[in-house]
Design a protein that fits this description.
44% helix; flat; alpha/beta; six-stranded mixed β-sheet; 14 helices
Amino acid sequence: MYRSETIFALSSGRPPCAIAVVRVSGPQAGAALSGLAGLLPAPRVATRALLRDAKQQPIDDGLVLWFPGPASATGEDIAEFQVHGGRAVLQALFAALLGIAGIRPAEPGEFTRRGFENGKLDLTEAEALDDLIHADTERQRRQALRQLKGLLGDRARDWRTQIIEASALIEAGIDFSDEADVPAELVAPALLRINRLLDEIEAVLTAQGHSERLRDGLVVAITGPPNVGKSTLINQLSRRDVAIVSPHAGTTRDLIEVQLDLEGYPVTLIDTAGIRETEDPVEQEGVRRARRRAAEADLVLWLADDTAGQRQTVTGYVPVWYIRNKIDLFEGPAGLDRLAATSDDFAISASRGDGLTGLMQALVRFAGDHFGREEVGLIGRLRQREWLEQTAAALRRCVVAQAGGEELMAEELRIASDALGRLLGRVDVEDVLDVIFRDFCIGK
């Protein structure tokens, strides 16, 4: 049933827009193209055509393209319609496509999943495509593009080939076990490959640090007592009014999140409710959420002024920077002294902007250390790290299993090969495909 279905979807931006791209993939793509355009153009050549529905009523004057499989993004026949991006035009085109037997709207990620299942890309490249679509910063874009070009997938395929070759040597040693000198001659070069490969994978795992977290970004929670300028600070850092600023304590009752591009690093700033004892049940809930979000953040900016109480400790192992605000109220030498910030202690005026440049520079440095400054990281997702770690663990066990015989070594190599196969999506990964592809946008 799946293979016989033809799917279609809008693959461009939300209408209305200048030009909309509608793609059709599957065995009925050619029939849909010739039926609506009145012709089947030469492969991969944009051709102007007047599109008509089944009653020969005109839909739009646009461009059509024909990509016969398997030389297409999905490995199937693909038809592409480039039409004017008005809602009425798209509605008429969709109605005409639905009138063709065997054609239905695509599910999220279904185009990419078909490409994956037809061998057009592996699972690391499919994940990279999703990351590229959702990239908000330049660093996220570059990392996703490297993955899409096979940065990890190519290395994983090479590693798997080396494991299979080493396994072949071990298996040959088992087959010739009756000849005393043959197994040793085969196991030695196999172990040499295994140890070299293990060193390479462990170096990749060690070098990654938090690079895979670049997808999700750095979470910075701004917290502290009420009425110390948290909302003013988040408005200054985001360069727009996203939070209500009021002289009355307890104005912020819920969490306010702002996405920032900090020199290519994705950062989520969170303005939390002022932390204090209160009888107001709504404000109590805001304080509870503020404490919980601070404990889950990657960095906490504890904001206070000289009248706002002592430094606080955040539950867990979250680093805390102490931000002394309102230095504009302490003009003169005492106020200037407060501008000499330490590594985790800053003095600012959120309303006037004093000290904010130094704070921003410190945040950039923290983000660089958090994500890793190198742009050669292979690992983009936690799932990928976990399978690489399992591969390395199996290779380590294989080396240790030498004393137990070639059969144990061969089994560990099989486990290592399967782990890399799961990383690439080529070995028994049906249980994770739905989870990965459901987050794609419709039409991709």
